[in-house]
Amino acid sequence: MPPTISLTPATLKAFFDEVALLIGEDNVSRDHSSGALTGALGQTTYGDAFSKADTNLPAGAVRPETVQEVQEIVKLANKHQVYLWTVSRGKNLGYGGTGPVVKGTVVLDLHRMTQIIEINEEYGYAIVEPGVSFFDLYEEIQRRGLKLWPSVPAIGWGSVVGNTLDRGFGYTPNGEHSQSQCGMEVVLPDGTLIRTGSGAMSDNATWALYKGLDGLFYQSNLGIVTKIGIHITPAPEAYATVEVDVPLESDLIPLVGTLSDLMRRSIILNSPSIANIFRIALTSEKPEVLSQIGPYMKADSYVPYDLLERIRVEERWGFWRAYFSLYGSVEMLSALKATVERAFRQAVPGVQFKYREWAGLPGAAISAAEDIKTEVVPHSGIPTVEPLGIVDSRGERGGGHICFSPVIPPSGRELYDWYLAAKKRTADAKFDFFADFHVYPRYVIAIDLVIYTMGEEQRLHELYKQLLHDAGEQRFMEYRTHVGYMDTVASKLDFNDFAFGKFVQTLKDTFDPNGVLSPGKSGIWVTGQNM
Description:
The protein is of the alpha+beta class. The protein folds into three domains: about 10-110, Uridine Diphospho-n-acetylenolpyruvylglucosamine Reductase, domain 2, CATH 3.30.43; about 115-235, Uridine Diphospho-n-acetylenolpyruvylglucosamine Reductase, domain 3 (2-Layer Sandwich); about 240-485, FAD-linked oxidases, C-terminal domain (Vanillyl-alcohol Oxidase, Chain A, domain 3, 3-Layer(aba) Sandwich). It is built from 15 helices and 19 strands. The protein has helices at about 10-25, 65-80, 135-145, 160-165, 175-180, 250-265, 275-280, 285-295, 305-315, 330-345, 370, 415-430, 455-475, 485-490, 495-510, and strands spanning about 30, 60, 85, 105-110, 115-120, 125-130, 150, 180-185, 195, 225-230, 235, 240-245, 275, 320-330, 350-360, 400-405, 405-410, 435-440, 445-450.
């Protein structure tokens, strides 16, 4: 059963009344029915937009605008023993949205904290608050005419802070956001305000340049992050987007092995993403392809792989397609292309390449907004919300998706073995395997993005449990998980009699003895609280 808390109506009313005096009644939601940022269907409710269940519904929400208001709300939560679930903008799609682990928690919604504190073009960084979206940061860079390409994820309406803290990623060379983040401001569970790293010294100029103990606050509930520094890629002189198609399903092994090797040798600087033939067909926008898969795009069905193979042959596509880009000086670009082509031709028979190239001028930066304008994958930092439409691809408006996201070594061998098993599980459950794999120098995030209709939710969660079990048997863990499975994932961390879980519980007991901040986040609870 999902964890639930039962606060008396009087306790909740007293808390909301005091918060309303602090931030105004308009910024207090006394139930979950309104107040959130508008979702894809126009809804402003709190909770998981991709679920009809009430298992992760909050009791309401409060929306501060300043750091001082956050501090006071935390103190009031301790006073009234009310639990808070922190969200930045609430766009955690596929992982629970604004839904808390514990039903009845109050959402601490930071979307009104929208200050861009600083953008430094010389050193390539920004300092932002939690309400700043990827669109906001990009548009401010364009407004100022700065030669910077900010990293953005596939859907750009989310929070720079929230995405980074959940180890999200984008597509420029600074796309590994947890590695590109530097410097935090944090409200601790007692309301104390700290800054990490060089920020611990007032007015230190290297706060966003030299890290401290920032990692303590990734995917945790030990504090509320109110500012972060994030590094940004300088706009290059020359740039090329690359699509690499490989023909066979088993070519995933050399494809991933070659990509990760080129990344370790700093030939490829951004994170390649990999699509399978189902995803290629679904997103192709080719009427003759969509008409063939259309009859299977419905509940309790999946597109047969023999049909996908026929389409692949007809269209001369690969079974797998990798997307990445090359960045550098004018003189470098042709050499980078030659190096990439040589590596893949040696590794994969039948490999195909497709380029879009901006050769540039020596000493001049390419403008993403003026020169590139739009991209299928935002390698130049231009945000979009176009991928949102996939949730309706099974024939019903208002569908959803969930992401099963294990971390796997980058040789390609382990990934292929996991993929074959997960693909079978997904097909047996009558869902399509939508591959959203992301390659890094020393690991792969292998996302099985499952699209479903609301009527398939129970079957979907049975599949998710099977995928979790299988990954545990294979000794893989997710990089990030849905709020409904955080305890399950934490229960797999069994080294030395679950020593890690005991350690983080000790930290939680020390920093947050009342357990008011995001109970159950990443499976972290104060002693005696786990419900």
